[in-house]
Design a protein that fits this description.
Elements: H1 2-6, E1 11-12, E2 18-22, H2 30-36, E3 37-38, E4 44-47, E5 50-55, E6 62-65, E7 71-86, E8 96-103, E9 112-118, E10 124-130, E11 168-169, E12 174-182, E13 185-191, E14 199-205, E15 213-220, E16 227-242, E17 247-250, E18 254-257, E19 259-264, E20 267-272, E21 332-338, E22 342-346, E23 354-359, E24 410-415, E25 422-431, E26 434-439, E27 448-449, E28 451-453, E29 461-465, E30 476-483, E31 488-494, E32 515-520, E33 524-533, E34 537-542, E35 547-551, E36 555-560, H3 569-577, E37 583-588, E38 594-605, E39 608-613, E40 616-621, E41 625-629, E42 643-648, E43 652-655, E44 657-662, E45 665-669, E46 675-679, E47 683-689, E48 693-695, E49 703-706, E50 717-718, E51 727-729, E52 732-734, E53 737-741, E54 744-749, E55 756-763, E56 772-779, E57 782-791, E58 797-802, E59 808-815, E60 824-833, H4 843-851, E61 856-858
Parallel strand pairs: 26-27, 58-61
Antiparallel strand pairs: 1-18, 2-16, 3-6, 4-5, 5-16, 6-15, 7-12, 7-16, 8-9, 8-15, 9-10, 10-11, 12-13, 13-14, 17-18, 17-22, 19-20, 20-21, 22-47, 23-24, 24-29, 25-26, 25-30, 28-29, 30-31, 32-33, 32-36, 33-34, 33-38, 34-35, 36-41, 37-38, 37-41, 38-39, 39-40, 42-43, 42-47, 44-45, 45-46, 48-60, ...
Pfam families: NPCBM (PF08305)
Biased composition (Pro residues): 386-397
Domain Glycosyl hydrolase family 98 putative carbohydrate-binding module: 690-834
Length: 863
């Protein structure tokens, strides 16, 4: 019930890069039409099945366009579904048409357009159009594509030749127009009564920019009658979609755009920050003072929905009729959603580069700059390269590498770094004795060297600078950052304490706590300062200031934050995936190389780590430790209640019970019972588990059977392809799913907790349409679905199968007719619904016929 109602106020989506705008009256209110409709508004009418456009001859173009802030990036598929009620014969070419257009900048100057129209001779056609390289005109317009003809008799040229018009036959009233982008190419496809399969009718180049707008339109310059069409919806599958703000997605795929601001009795409060429209007829001043017996308030009639219900009958947990007093008059409560009905929250935020002055701790990693180099002595008369008289050549400044100087460094901390390597850092700061300069690469400059400590491409890094002669207290650092991919960033930071160029480094003093990335069970990660480690717990001060004590039973490994790692993050990740029967220590030997030592990590405190090797405790400095992987241990029990997992900037993830929202802090109780307060501004997304829906990729199969055709076994993967790349199916990104190779059988214990299994099964694009497998689904041994020849050159298949009362679910992908060639299969969005949460019967079938070309199998039998 919930999923069918929330769509009335939100947009639908099936993945992180999906956008679905239904144009039916129930999901497309008048305010949305006023904002997104264009042209003659009298020609636009909201109806039960879609947006109806009836345009008289000679009227301006009218239709619907995407919100101005929407951006569609990377490869994408854009599909419009529509019903043609009347398409009249025009007096001239292009006189009456229906179409879809896309633009990278201004939608009225589209890069590509696909039309359905009648020719003056009565032929029913499609016509693809691309933007002209000159002047921005469109193919087929009067000013584009005409060739000038040579006139041998002089005088003005004759009328230019007509442009070339590429047309394709059309048939049918209910059609789908589709634009598929791969790289910089855009392909036009149509679905109608001409063929059972989609037809490709052209391809254009639209350049590298993101698509900034899509419009569905009707034009009627000189048709004999009005054009009458019903636009049903627009669906976009893309690598990335931005511009719509925070997206809250329910377990049914419905998406609301708004900000989560509170938790009330297990419900998430979503605020709509769109300013409310002023009342159409504001009351005159003083009316409220008149006696009630004179002016009786008129009782508003309830708004009727196409289904026959009224707005007042909608559940209070979804729509708020009286949200109460608001602190911000522009904000209103949009919905209250039970947490077990929420699938995910995705924030559209960009990390801002920030730098913080820490002080002058007992750290010495760098020193002052070098001295100018001396020119090579030239032979007499060798002055070809010498500057003219009166010009002094600049001194040659060699590159200076950071080296300890015996003086404590100035410490700055950077946050909000991009996922890219840093090529150059330039820092300037005025002092009491002149300007001070530091650079990461000092080649050719008198700047002093910067010591950078950053593990891989982390979003945090430490900068260490040699203190200049003058005091920097209350002075501003001007910092310019250049990434290896060519992008730049600038930021300022103020020194909030004194600096001393003579403050000595004390090697006997304790070393400050080192940065560490802590890998936890269930793919969770934390990052911060490693404070201590005991036989039972690891203590870490997080980047947002909380001190957490993580039980070692949940810790998989620790990767220390060194500036010059020998152990690469990729190598460490492989070690994490294959833990052994004892702990594995990665330590630097005297020659600087990394050695691996098996034993038991016993403790860490201050600057020392204690490690038991061959039954004897040994101690080494933490600064020698690259990391350690703890011995294999049983996975923790899955949550029995709703468990959100929070993803923060820098790839940090932490799960726990969401307790409350307090302004800019979210209080979360960790799985081990400790309360932490997450900074809301750093949260990038939240995914919920343990609710009314579960993805198979979040569950552990009770049995895995993998039989290679030859000798090499290919293990199944979760949420990535078999080679570790992002999932894609039918040219669209997939966030959750399973990748398998024939022959693979996965068995999951259901314990009679679920009622419906849903998935879309197809082939990884790397199969190159060559795979053929025998695909089957069983519940307690009973076959629910069978396709003995599932093919990579056919559309994916959408499944919705009943599993109520079943103890086990088994997914089988067996060898097909072509041995195992190309047998890389994806179970996309494979999920299980609990009782009361499954979509209404037939919902999947409707979606399949109206939104994509994937056939749907809905089995009526029960296990």
């Amino acid at each position: 019930m919930l999923g069918g109602l929330v769509v009335w106020i939100g947009l639908w989506a099936a993945g992180a890069g999906d956008y679905h705008r239904p144009l039916a009256e129930k999901a497309f209110d008048q305010a949305a039409l006023d904002a997104e409709g264009f042209g003659d508004k009298k020609a636009l009418a909201r109806e039960a099945d879609g947006l109806r456009v009836t345009l008289k001859p000679g009227e301006a173009e009218a239709g619907w366009k995407t919100p101005q802030q929407l951006r569609i990036g990377g490869d994408c598929t854009i599909t419009a579904t529509l019903d043609i009620r009347k398409l009249p014969k025009p007096a001239r070419e292009d006189g009456a048409a229906i179409g879809i257009a896309v633009a990278t900048q201004v939608i009225d100057q589209p890069e590509a357009t696909l039309l359905r129209e009648l020719e003056p001779d009565g032929r029913d056609i499609y016509r693809p159009i691309e933007k002209s390289a000159a002047g921005g005109a469109m193919m087929g317009s009067p000013m584009m594509g005409r060739r000038r003809v040579f006139n041998p008799f002089g005088g003005p040229d004759p009328t230019p030749a007509k442009p070339i018009r590429h047309t394709f036959p059309a048939k049918g009233q209910s059609i789908r127009l589709e634009l598929r982008r791969q790289g910089q190419s855009l392909r036009f496809q149509v679905y109608d009564e001409m063929a059972k399969e989609p037809r490709e009718i052209g391809k254009v180049d639209i350049g590298p920019m993101d698509i900034g707008g899509v419009k569905l339109f009707v034009a009627n310059r000189n048709g004999a009658e009005p054009v009458d069409v019903l636009f049903r919806d627009l669906i976009v599958h893309a690598d990335r979609i931005t511009g719509l703000g925070t997206a809250v997605r329910t377990i049914h795929g419905t998406v609301l755009h708004g900000e989560p601001t509170a938790l009330e009795h297990g419900k998430l409060v979503i605020m709509d920050n769109t300013p409310a429209a002023p009342p159409a007829n504001p009351p005159a001043a003083g009316t409220a003072d008149l006696p009630r017996q004179v002016f009786t308030p008129v009782r508003a009639a309830p708004t009727r929905l196409p289904s026959g219900g009224v707005v007042a009958e909608l559940p209070r947990l979804v729509f708020v009729s009286n949200p109460g007093p608001q602190t911000n008059p522009a904000a209103r409560v949009k919905a209250r959603l039970p947490l077990d009905q929420v699938e995910s929250i995705t924030f559209e935020r960009s990390s801002m580069l920030a730098v913080k002055f820490v002080g002058q701790p007992n750290v010495d990693t760098t020193g002052p700059g070098g001295t100018p180099g001396k020119d090579d002595k030239k032979a007499a008369g060798d002055d070809l390269a010498a500057p003219p008289p009166g010009t002094v050549p600049p001194p040659k400044m060699p590159k200076v590498e950071p080296k300890p100087s015996g003086i404590r460094d100035i410490h700055l901390v950077m946050s909000g770094l991009r996922d890219a390597a840093i090529q150059q850092i330039m820092i300037q700061c005025p002092t009491d004795k002149g300007q001070a300069m530091w650079q990461l690469d000092t080649t050719g400059t008198p700047a002093w060297p910067v010591s950078l400590r950053r593990a891989g491409k982390e979003t945090w890094a430490d900068l260490f600078l040699e203190p200049p002669d003058g005091d920097l207290n209350n002075k501003q650092f001007m910092i310019n950052l250049m990434y290896a991919d060519g992008q730049n960033a600038q930021v300022q930071a103020q020194a909030t304490g004194k600096t001393d160029p003579k403050l000595k480094f004390d090697p006997a003093a304790p070393t400050p706590a080192l940065d560490a990335r802590v890998y936890l069970a269930e793919d969770e990660q934390l990052f911060g300062k490693l404070e201590a480690l005991s036989a039972d717990a690891l203590t870490l001060t997080t980047t947002w200031g909380d001190k957490v004590d993580v039980p070692l039973a949940r810790v998989l490994g620790v990767y220390m934050g060194m500036a010059d790692h020998k152990e690469t993050p990729e190598s460490f990740a492989k070690r994490l995936k294959a833990p052994g029967g004892e702990d594995l220590l990665l330590a630097r030997a005297k020659d600087g190389e990394v050695v691996t030592i098996g034993g038991v990590v016993e403790a860490a405190k201050g600057e020392k780590l204690t490690f038991a090797y061959r039954g004897k405790s040994r101690t080494l400095a933490l600064k020698q430790v690259e990391g350690f992987v703890l011995a294999a241990k049983p996975a923790p029990a899955p949550p029995t209640d709703v468990r959100p997992t929070f993803t923060l900037s820098g790839g940090l993830t932490l799960s726990g019970r969401w307790v409350k929202v307090e302004g800019d802090k979210w209080e979360v109780e960790t799985p081990w019972g400790q309360a932490v307060k997450l900074p809301a501004a750093e949260v990038r997304g939240v995914r919920f588990r343990g609710g009314e829906m579960a993805y198979l990729s979040d569950l552990q199969p009770s049995k895995v059977e993998e039989t290679p055709y030859f000798a090499r076994r290919t293990p199944y993967r979760r949420d990535v392809t078999l080679d570790g790349s992002p999932l894609k199916l039918d040219d669209r990104a997939v966030e959750k799913g399973l990748s398998v190779h024939s022959r693979t059988a996965l068995t999951y214990d259901l314990d009679r907790r679920y009622t419906t299994f849903e998935a879309t099964v197809g082939f990884d694009p790397s199969a190159n349409k060559k795979g053929r497998v025998d695909c089957r689904v069983f519940a307690d041994g009973k076959e629910l679905y069978a396709n003995p020849d599932l093919r990579a050159d056919a559309p994916p298949v959408r499944l919705s199968l009943p599993v109520a009362g079943a103890d086990q679910l088994r997914l089988v992908v067996d060898f097909g007719a072509d041995e195992d060639t190309g047998d890389r299969v994806i179970w996309a969005d494979a999920r299980l619904y609990r009782p009361g949460a499954a979509p209404a019967p037939g919902a999947a079938s409707v979606a399949a016929t109206s939104t994509d070309r994937s056939p749907t199998t809905t089995t009526a039998s029960r296990p």
